Amino acid sequence: MSFDPAIATAAYIDGLGPAALAKAAAYTVGSEWLLLWNLVVAAVVTFLFVRFRILDRVSAKLERRGWAVRTFLICAAFLLLSALLTLPWDLYTNFFRESAYGRTSQPLGDYLAQSAISLVIGTLFGALFFLGIYALIRRAGKRWWIWSGGLAATAILAILLVSPIVVEPLFNDYKPLTAGAVRDALEVQAKEAGIEPDRIFVFDGSRQSNNFTANVSGLGHSARIAISDVALKGASLDEVRAVTGHEIGHYVLGQIWWMIAVFSLLAILLFFLADRLFPRFARLFGSDATIGDARGFPVLMFIVSLFGLLAQPVQNWVVRKGETEADLYSVQTVNLPDAMASALVKTAEYRNPRPNAVEEFLFYSHPSVERRVRAAMEWKAAHPPKAE
Description:
It contains 16 helices and four strands. The protein is mainly α. The protein has a four-stranded mixed beta sheet with strand order 1-2-4-3. A hairpin with a 6-residue loop joins strand 3 (214-217) and strand 4 (224-228). Helix 2 packs antiparallel against helix 12 (297-310), helix 10 (237-252) crosses helix 14 (337-347) and helix 13 (312-333) runs parallel beside helix 16. The longest helix has 34 residues, at 18-51. The protein is globular, with a radius of gyration of 23 Å. The protein starts with a helix and ends in a 6-residue tail after the last helix.
């Protein structure tokens, strides 16, 4: 009997069982609705800040400070205070809901402690980035938004360089893989791709999440491939090799540069729309600030949230393209399509493997698990093992 990719794919997905598939679908649909509710929450926060003139009061207290310091502190105040205001919503969406679906076992205290670290980092970097945006508005005139793409690219590059060295170790413990069969196998893959073997790490991802994950981060000498201990504990050697091959694919194919270019162009479009539509949104929320006035930062952030949501299908398409290419790289170089398929099925526990085409296009940052497994099975059908 000839090998049928469709039948093999169905067997992998159906192997999860009806209960697990229904749970994954419910979790996924709920997460998609949260995107809309997050925007509603952002609108409420914007209204409250404008209605009670919170940043007006902050600005008045900082009137003797220089423009740059005042602008930075106003942005930081909004980012900090809005995060505290939405803390109950954050706890529901990112902790209690995740716990209810079995996606995390992290204690509440540890979650709050790490959230506090994230808040400090996000406030500092966010305020610094928007200080740059306000500086462009102040210095570059009516076409300031053209230069926002360069600022966005610079910010992304800075994050990619700094995050693996400074930020990520604040949340997880990264260690080189210990000696053994897994390390031996992955060292071979790394060397073939021109990656230093000591740049493959395992991290305690189970601290925050029960999800089966791995990632590639950094640039140049800071680049590294990191595999969650969840994946190592719950995967076979072949599955680890297939997943690592996928992550190496992101690095070897240089996808980060394509993504930086696309996201920089999206930033230009987003800030162009913000420049044109800010007065209307300001009136809608009852603000008298102009786009160059940091007192209107809540309105600007709402516009960013709104158009960021509307641009999500484009962002998702870019990421899906990269994921598809990395999958292909893995099966071409490692040639373990069944291991790739079984590893992908483990991610279907928190990502509905069978969305409809519209849902996948709008909301999925990765191709559906069914689509990815089918691609692996088609590779297997086209490249049968040679008879010995």
